[in-house]
Design a protein that fits this description.
Layout: E1 5-9, H1 14-26, E2 32-35, H2 44-49, H3 54-58, E3 61-63, H4 66-70, E4 75-79, E5 90-92, H5 93-105, E6 110-114, H6 123-127, E7 131-134, H7 146-161, H8 179-195, H9 205-218, H10 223-239
Parallel strand pairs: 1-2, 1-6, 2-3, 4-6, 4-7, 5-7
Domain tRNA/rRNA methyltransferase SpoU type: 5-155
Family: Belongs to the class IV-like SAM-binding methyltransferase superfamily. RNA methyltransferase TrmH family.
Protein name: Putative tRNA/rRNA methyltransferase
Length: 243
């Protein structure tokens, strides 16, 4: 599957181009186009700041105008934090990530315009795009540097196709133990606590058992951890709990 093309319009510093390349590769974006970079191209400072994202810079293409840079594209997004009073659809970076997945799956070539660091895209450059892309941020401070803006787009593009669960247990193959094994441990624990005199008031047995159950369930013990707890219970009941 192809990916969106990142088009940096009149970027001012080689370091910013390099950091943008790094942000792109974080999100799986590899194609960069440059429109009249202020300090010329190639720029050694870009490679120094790219932290290994050399492939993006090595293959970057140089253009004289925005029109040239987008001539072969079917759909173009323009990033801006300011209202431009232009009748265009406006999407968030999250929405753009999902839309780009659909557009590219439909074999359309897509690109995203990013303006120069100081002032952003000019109105005519925004007008050349099909859709305006903006990022909802603190309305009192929406300023982003170039690499941050590129990273937000790259992140949302990547997330739109990523299957990583929102929450999972670290530790390789270990997963929470099956409920049957957890219940087996709870039955054994409660039985030993009763024999040891912990359940002094029968009417509180249910409440105490529920509290212990919630305590251990919050830990989501794995099978190995349940075996460790079984061993601890066995050792305590064999030796007797110290006073």
């Amino acid at each position: 599957m192809s990916t969106p093309i990142v088009i940096l319009v009149r970027p001012q510093l080689g370091e910013n181009i390099g950091m943008a390349a790094r942000a792109m590769l974080n999100g799986g974006l590899t194609e960069m186009r440059l429109v009249r970079p202020r300090d010329g191209w190639p720029n050694e400072a870009a490679w120094a700041a790219a932290s290994g994202a050399d492939r993006v810079l090595d293959e970057a293409k140089l253009y004289a105008t925005v029109a040239d840079a987008i001539a072969d594209l079917n759909h173009v997004y323009a990033t801006t934090a300011r209202s431009r009073a232009q009748a265009k659809p406006i999407v968030t970076a999250r929405q753009a990530g999902a839309e780009l997945r659909d557009l590219i799956a439909d074999t359309r070539r897509c690109g995203v315009l990013f303006g120069p660091e100081r002032a952003g895209l000019e109105n005519d450059e925004v007008a050349a795009a099909d859709t305006v892309l903006t990022v909802p941020l603190n309305p009192d401070f929406t300023s982003l540097n170039l690499a941050q803006a590129v990273l937000l787009l790259a992140y949302e593009w990547y997330q739109a196709g990523d299957q990583t669960p929102g929450r999972y247990l670290a530790g390789g193959a270990d997963v929470p133990a099956p409920k049957a094994e957890f219940e087996n441990f709870m039955d054994r624990l409660v039985a030993h606590l009763e024999r040891g005199g912990f359940m002094t008031e029968p009417q509180l047995r249910h409440t105490v058992t529920r509290n212990l159950r919630n305590l251990f369930q919050r830990a989501a013990p794995t099978e190995q951890e349940l075996r460790t707890l079984h061993g601890a219970v066995k050792a305590l009941t064999k030796a007797g709990t110290p006073e």
